[in-house]
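We modelled the chain as a single entity of 436 amino acids. Its sequence is:
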Amino acid sequence: MWIRGIGSVLCAAFLAVILAACSSPSVSLEEDPAAYEDQVGRLQARLSERPDDAKALRDLGAIYMRTQRPARAYDALKKAFSYQPNDPKTLFYLGLASESVGKRQAALRMFKKYGEVSPASDYRTLMEGRYEWLVRTQVKEDMRDLLAREREIADQQVSERVVAVLPLEFQGADEQYKPLGRGLAAMVTTDLANVSRLKIVERIRLQALLDELELAQTEYVDASTAPRVGRMLGAGRLVGGSYYVTTDERLRMDVTLASIGSSVQFPDIDGESGQLRDLFRLQKQLVFRIIDGLDVQLTPRERAKIEEVPTENLQAFLAYCRGLEDEDRGDFGAAERHYGRSQTLDPGFEAPRQRKSKMEGLSAAGGSPQNAMASATQAQSGTTSIDLLDQRLRNMGFNVSLSPEPSREPAQESDTASPEALPPPPDPPPSDRSQN
């Protein structure tokens, strides 16, 4: 009993450190090739008898990846893929190997197959997360490249059909409403995306540029910076603006629509004001004003889609907005928690469910390939949360177990069963629509 008491004290003392560690994989990978010598020998013996043994090739490739031999891993996993192209573990490790040997587009193709993997497989989440991570990495690199070539594209023509919706600036005093600016922009983006005549700049592309430019929010659409932002994004129209919430919960939203051409024009758009509880109705009215400013005629079907309200739960929407704020600053764990709270408050609110799934994947598989492999090892070993706390305390130098039972030895690979081996998945579901 006193041992458990010590464990409880230690758990409380190091809780802050442990919680911080929970935001990224912390299970150490054994990277010494000698540690896998027996397994490699058995797998190679199997392959000498059956060169088309897809599982042996796959597990050999996984070991090569763990021991930082990506070229060998790529060769083995590519062969495994040719024999068994639907195996989730093969897809995941071949994606990592492709990435590690400089074949990013091939890696993206592998990870993009996550929609074909059974939801019951841990590899689906890992593949989706790695796909999202690589897409975001590519977008950031593209934005840096554009900035480096800014003079070359200074005279580049932009299309008025391409529209970028910027976060709205908060001008109130109550900080709880500050995240609304990103949520309102996200709702406007979603609504305008229903208009077939328009092409809307993706959020991650827009955010990557804003991060690189390091502009203040008030500078997004002023006369001096709007042309620069528009040309970088290829957008002929920029939607921005501001909002505030009074102490008696009245909301005012004002929008600016900048047209980027030979000269910058700012057509007048009337704002919207009313009670905060009417936010969703006010937002829809504002969107139709923006569409009028864009001089676009809607079809009945487009109008009906825009009129759909994704949620009427203000607290669920605020939690979603906080998730967007966390996501844009790269705190995927916090974003996942806020999206989860939003989903709990309104299970019918689809946007946080989709974004929560992406955040789960990014938390698990973002960062270096080693982080992604650590998550795969952690997920497939069946490690419980209390075991992970034990492991993290041991990694910190404390030989104390918080578990009521003796901690288990890590699972080892063998020639008969891999700790990451999965039963054959059921027929894959239709691919999800990926929204960035």
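As a brief sanity check on the tokenised model: The beta strands are 159-165, 169-170, 199-200, 235-245, 250-259, 272-275. The chain is about 55% helix and 10% strand.
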